[in-house]
Structure formats: structure tokens, C-alpha cells
């Protein structure tokens, strides 16, 4: 046991009054704790303020980029609306008749006007359509009149559409999309001007998010080296905000995206891809950074509360202990010795606990390693299953390809048998009947007439067998190519029906890939057969065009139409069409509805 200290060992403690010593200890503790709190605050709150501020700015920039993507999607949808209107081949055919002098312009206007009006009704965003002739003169229009300064006519030979700067049409802010109408020979026969209202853009897409009454979202474009703001939501744009918004819009029109921080406003700007427009979104900095200030205030209040509680606790504990520190110093030494012994025991117990904890950690690591091994095995099984499924998909494609090749081989064999074997037998029979008719005596006129009639029947059967053989495997496809084969197919179908066929093609190479040419021929053959048998149509439009490195086959009729989702499962025609395109890496689109005709489009790479 430690010996008690003598009176000479504590002269300072005995010389100070208890109250004064307590005050000094309290002041020292308060100063040390305050310095520690200030250091912690400077090391954590200041960097946190910067990160939170940048996070709020990044959120505003993300909102601006999301709005820009939505505007770009609306812009591309406006271009697609114009392309859909130009794809109406019946109006184009009548316009070509006008150029050929077969139809008057008045007749064309009476014919095309209702159809363009119907096309305009299909989209609430389209407010006006004007069709210009190849000379740039308006031939028909419906809806809002489009001023000449908003006309955008694509150059000759270009398949792209052009979009004007926003203009006011009868109080509506619109863009005018100019789309070329391509004729049979690939040249431009007309230009469609489609006026698209920006009301949906302003009403749904451009509304600023959140509840900031000072927030504004603006769209602008560059005109004659100046920034022209043509759409602001909500209106109006405050005069104090206009210079900063113009600066942000100028940066966006230069192709840059970023944040512009002013005194009371933060502006996020970004370009709208593929439109030539720029977007700027403003927000009140006080509302934008309000969550940052709230969080920082809560942290400061928590720090101050902890500081006050520490001081209060220290003061409460210090008052009764000050006297005992001075009066019981000897007992304190004994207590320190006893506490040392107890701490030594606790340290030994802690070491034992740490050893047990280490053993538990080792066991946990072993279990984790075992679980990792099992997960790796499961992952390997999943990879094997994935590879097996991919193999099954490839086997299905190969089986489908073999079935199509087998079908074409069977058709070729039947065609050859009909032409070589059956055709020769019928020719021999015809010659035999003619010889028998010549060898009859003169008084057997009735028998001769029957033989002649039988020979005519043999000729008819021979003609039908030849037509059947051509349908199974057209010779023109092997010797002359796809376009002559389709023309021959249309001639045969027109001779056997009362339909009016319209065939259009341009720039189709003669040495087109044999498998792709055969697939397109079979799709056209099946589509025309379905039209004759089921559609009850009056007109059929078939086109085969080349667009850059793609070949597109289109078959469109004005018949009864059908519901593609309700077709019976036993119908194999559309299934074979689609499977042929899948094997060649192409696409097949079927558009139909009861009473609205049928439109089939097949497209493959050149």
C-alpha cells in the first residue's frame, strides 16, 4: 500500500481557498472545451458547407439537363410528325399527275385538302399544313396560314427536314417543319410545311420544378449574332433577372453547360441537343440553399448544446469535489493505488475478451470465405445457364433458317418437276391428241371436235402449271433481279383481279443479295395474296426504295384492314414474313386497323 504524502508535498493546494481553486479549474476547462469545439467546427462545417452548396447546384443542373432532354424529344417528335405527313403516297401520286397534266391543280387541292386536314386532326400539336410544289409555290393548305418568312425548303437531293425559328401564328407560338416529298424517281416533287404549336412544350415541359415563385425557365436561339429568348415560363421574365439569364443562355447556345451564381439567383444553363436552342433555369438562392442553412444551423445548435451541457456537468461536479481534493489528498492517493490495481485486473480481463473477439472474428472470416465460395459456384452455374440459353436461341435461329431454306428447296423441286416432268407429259399428250385428230376419217367430225377440245383443255392446264411453277420459284428473280420480278408478280396479280396496282421503285441495284431479294419477294407475294383474298381493297400501293444503305419494301392497301393482336394463331403468313426478316437482320412493321387498310413495311441492310 502506498504511503500517505506529507504536508510538504501539497503546499499549493493548502495555500489556495476552495472557491478560488474551483473557479480556476472551471475556467481552464471551459477555455479548453471551447477551443476544441471551434477547431472541430472549422474542420467539419466549412467543408460540409461547400459540399452541400455544390450538391444543391448539381441538383439544379440535373433538372435543367432533364428539361433539355424532354425538349429535344418534343423537337424530334415534331420532325417525325412532318415525316409521317410526307409519307402519304396517294397524295404524292396525284400531285405527280398534276405535273404530268393529267389532273388539274383545283382537283388536286380538292383531293388533298381533306386528307391533310385529317392528318392534322391526328395530332393536337399540328395547327397548319401547307404543301409547296417543286417550284416552291403553295398548291394546298389547311389550318393556320404559314408566312413565307417561316418557309424552310430542304435542298434538292436531301432527305433531311428543316425547322424554322419560332413564329407567332394567330396568337400561337409555333415552329414550322419543312419536310421533302420524294417522287418515284427519287427527286423532290413537293415540300410539306407543318406548323407545330409549342403549347404542350410551354404547358408541361417548361414548368419550373418545386415551389419557388421566382424560378424561371427560358428557351432561346441565336439570330444574327444575338440571343433571342422566345419562351419563358412562367411569364414574365423580371427585368432584374434578364441580364443574368441572357448571359446563361449565351453560354448554352455556345454549346456549354454549367452554373452561373449571381447575388440572389443561381442559374443552370445547358444546350438542347440537335435543335440549336439553349435552356436556362433560374432559382432563388435563398430558397435553393435553405436546406443547407437549416442543416448547418442544426449542427451549430447541437454543438452549442453539447458545449453547454459539458460546462454545466463540470460545474455541478466541481463544486462538491473541490473541498474534498484539498481535505482528502491522502485518501486520494490510496484510491489511485486501489484503482490502479483494479485497472490492471480489468486490463487482463479486456485482453481475454480481445482474444475471444479475435477468435470470433477468425470464425466469421472463415464463414465469409465459405459463403464467397458458394456464391462463386452459384455465379458459375448462372453463367453456364446463360450460355446454354444463348445456345438454344442460336439453335432456334438455325432451325428457322433451315426450315425456310427447306421450304424454298421444296418449292424449287416442285417447280422443276412441274416444268420438266409434268410439262413434258402434257406436251406429249397435246401432240398425241393432235395426231389422233389428224388421223381420223373424214366422217368422224364429232370425234375430231372432242379431240380438239381436249387439246385446248391440255393447253389451259399447261398454262396454269407454268404460272404455278413461276409462283413457286420465279425465274426472273435469278436472271433479272428483284425489280423485274416484282413487276411480273404485279402483272400476274392484276390480270387475276380487279385491283388497281401502283408500283414505285428507285435506285435498286441489279446485283442485290440473292437471299435478301428472295425474302423481300416472298413478303410482297404473301402481302399481295392476302390483299386479294381478304382485304376487299380497290387500290394497292407497292414501293421499293433505297435510303442510303437500307432497302425498304412497302405494301399498302385501302381495304378492310384487321386487328393484328386478334389474328388467329394458325395464321403463318405474318409469322413467316417476320422470321425471314429476323434471319437477315432486318425489321418488319405491320400497321392495320378494322376499316383503315393495311400497311406492311420490311427493311433490310443493303
UniProtKB/TrEMBL annotation:
Record keyword Cell membrane present = no
InterPro entries xref list: HATPase_C_sf (IPR036890), HATPase_dom (IPR003594), His_kinase_dom (IPR005467), Sensor_HK_TwoCompSys (IPR050482), Sig_transdc_His_kin_sub3_dim/P (IPR011712)
SUPFAM superfamilies for the chain: ATPase domain of HSP90 chaperone/DNA topoisomerase II/histidine kinase
Which domain of life, per UniProt?
Bacteria
Keyword Lipid metabolism, does the record have it? Answer: no
Kindly list any coiled-coil regions of this protein: 350-395
Task: Write down the EC number.
Answer: 2.7.13.3
Instruction: Provide the protein name.
Output: Integral membrane sensor signal transduction histidine kinase
Which species expresses this protein natively?
A: Solidesulfovibrio fructosivorans JJ]
Taxonomic lineage? Bacteria, Pseudomonadati, Thermodesulfobacteriota, Desulfovibrionia, Desulfovibrionales
Amino acid at each position: 500500500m502506498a504511503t500517505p504524502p506529507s504536508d510538504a508535498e501539497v503546499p499549493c493546494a493548502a495555500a489556495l481557498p476552495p472557491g478560488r481553486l474551483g473557479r480556476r479549474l472551471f475556467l481552464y476547462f471551459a477555455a479548453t472545451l471551447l477551443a476544441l469545439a471551434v477547431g472541430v467546427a472549422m474542420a467539419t462545417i466549412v467543408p460540409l458547407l461547400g459540399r452541400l452548396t455544390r450538391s444543391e447546384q448539381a441538383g439544379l443542373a440535373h433538372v435543367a439537363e432533364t428539361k433539355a432532354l424532354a425538349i429535344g424529344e418534343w423537337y424530334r417528335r415534331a420532325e417525325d410528325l412532318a415525316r409521317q405527313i410526307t409519307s402519304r403516297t396517294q397524295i404524292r401520286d396525284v400531285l405527280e399527275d398534276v405535273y404530268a397534266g393529267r389532273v388539274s391543280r383545283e382537283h388536286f387541292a380538292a383531293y388533298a385538302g381533306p386528307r391533310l386536314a385529317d392528318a392534322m386532326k391526328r395530332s393536337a400539336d399540328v395547327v397548319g399544313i401547307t404543301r409547296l410544289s417543286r417550284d416552291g409555290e403553295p398548291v394546298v393548305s389547311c389550318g393556320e396560314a404559314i408566312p413565307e418568312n417561316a418557309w424552310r425548303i430542304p435542298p434538292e437531293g436531301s432527305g433531311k427536314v428543316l425547322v424554322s425559328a419560332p413564329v407567332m401564328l394567330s396568337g400561337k407560338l409555333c415552329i414550322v417543319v419543312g419536310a421533302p416529298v420524294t417522287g418515284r424517281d427519287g427527286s423532290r416533287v413537293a415540300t410539306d410545311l407543318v406548323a407545330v404549336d409549342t403549347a404542350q412544350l410551354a404547358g408541361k415541359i417548361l414548368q419550373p420544378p418545386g415551389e419557388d415563385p421566382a424560378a424561371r425557365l427560358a428557351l432561346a436561339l441565336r439570330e444574327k449574332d444575338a440571343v433571342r429568348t422566345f419562351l419563358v415560363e412562367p411569364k414574365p421574365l423580371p427585368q432584374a433577372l434578364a441580364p443574368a439569364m441572357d448571359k446563361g443562355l449565351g453560354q448554352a447556345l455556345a454549346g456549354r453547360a454549367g452554373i452561373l451564381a449571381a447575388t440572389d439567383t443561381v442559374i443552370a444553363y445547358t444546350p438542347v441537343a440537335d435543335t440549336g436552342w439553349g435552356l436556362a433555369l433560374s432559382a432563388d438562392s435563398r430558397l435553393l440553399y435553405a436546406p443547407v442553412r437549416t442543416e448547418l444551423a442544426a449542427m451549430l445548435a447541437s454543438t452549442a448544446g453539447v458545449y453547454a451541457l459539458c460546462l454545466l456537468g463540470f460545474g455541478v461536479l466541481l463544486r462538491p469535489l473541490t473541498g474534498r481534493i484539498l481535505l482528502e489528498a491522502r485518501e486520494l492517493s490510496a484510491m489511485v493505488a486501489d484503482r490502479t490495481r483494479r485497472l490492471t485486473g480489468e486490463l487482463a480481463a479486456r485482453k481475454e475478451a480481445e482474444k475471444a473477439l479475435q477468435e470470433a472474428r477468425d470464425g466469421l472470416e472463415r464463414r465469409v470465405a465459405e459463403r464467397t465460395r458458394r456464391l462463386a459456384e452459384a455465379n458459375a452455374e448462372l453463367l453456364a445457364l446463360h450460355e446454354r440459353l444463348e445456345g438454344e436461341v442460336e439453335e432456334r435461329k438455325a432451325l428457322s433458317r433451315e426450315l425456310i431454306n427447306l421450304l424454298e428447296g421444296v418449292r424449287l423441286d416442285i417447280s422443276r418437276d412441274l416444268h420438266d416432268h409434268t410439262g413434258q407429259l402434257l406436251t406429249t399428250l397435246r401432240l398425241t391428241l393432235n395426231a389422233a385428230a389428224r388421223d381420223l376419217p373424214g366422217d368422224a367430225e364429232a370425234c375430231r371436235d372432242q379431240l380438239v377440245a381436249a387439246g385446248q383443255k391440255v393447253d389451259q392446264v399447261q398454262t396454269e402449271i407454268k404460272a404455278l411453277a413461276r409462283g413457286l420459284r420465279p425465274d426472273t428473280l435469278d436472271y433479272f433481279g428483284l425489280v423485274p420480278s416484282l413487276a411480273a408478280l404485279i402483272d400476274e396479280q392484276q390480270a387475276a383481279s380487279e385491283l388497281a396496282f401502283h408500283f414505285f421503285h428507285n435506285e435498286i441495284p441489279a446485283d442485290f443479295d440473292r437471299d435478301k431479294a428472295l425474302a423481300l419477294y416472298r413478303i410482297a407475294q404473301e402481302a399481295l395474296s392476302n390483299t386479294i383474298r381478304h382485304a376487299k381493297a380497290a387500290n394497292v400501293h407497292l414501293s421499293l426504295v433505297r435510303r442510303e444503305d437500307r432497302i425498304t419494301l412497302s405494301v399498302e392497301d385501302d381495304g378492310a384492314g384487321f386487328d393484328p393482336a386478334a389474328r388467329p394463331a394458325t395464321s403463318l403468313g405474318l409469322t413467316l414474313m417476320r422470321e425471314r426478316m429476323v434471319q437477315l437482320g432486318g425489321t418488319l412493321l405491320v400497321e392495320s386497323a378494322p376499316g383503315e387498310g393495311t400497311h406492311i413495311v420490311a427493311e433490310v441492310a443493303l
